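FIELD: query
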Amino acid sequence: MALTISIISLLISGLTFWLTRVRKGHLKMTRPSMICFVGQNGNDEPKIVLRTLLYATAEQGQYIQNMFVKIFRAETIQNFNVWAYDDKGIVRGSDLFASKTGVSLYHHFLLPKNEQWVFVAGEYRLEVYADLVNRTTKKIFEQKLLLTNEQADDIKQGRAIYFDYAPNAGQYISHSDNRTNDRKNAL
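FIELD: result
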């Protein structure tokens, strides 16, 4: 009887050790509360901004080397692979740690140097990817969004298009805003 209890205790201890110290878990992303399309505005290139929580499913957490957004429109695919995030001022994204409790930030995705993009009316599929240390790049979010003709014209005139998640409706509600796209006005 004592031997059985000892073996069960050892198995439980081993499982606890594995769950808390060895298991890597996964990086997850909550549904962004806000997704924003920003067209070219003065010297600023087109970009995509979103507000979300990144978190790990294990105690160890996850180290994010880089992130990027892939956007699909009809047969067109564009990577916004220059990543910055807002952490007491916008900084170039790199080496972010996501713990089990998570990190909530504004993420800015810009075009690579010398590439062009124009937001036109239509249905878009937005995918967010994370490049993790010692792991393969992983898609962590996907969302379809619709940009109307009026909104595409608003972007051309320097306005940002916000897609705010409405939990009561279970969908994103879009609106145009002509304020500048900084953290204070991104709410």
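FIELD: remark
The CA atoms of residues 154 and 170 lie 25 Å apart.
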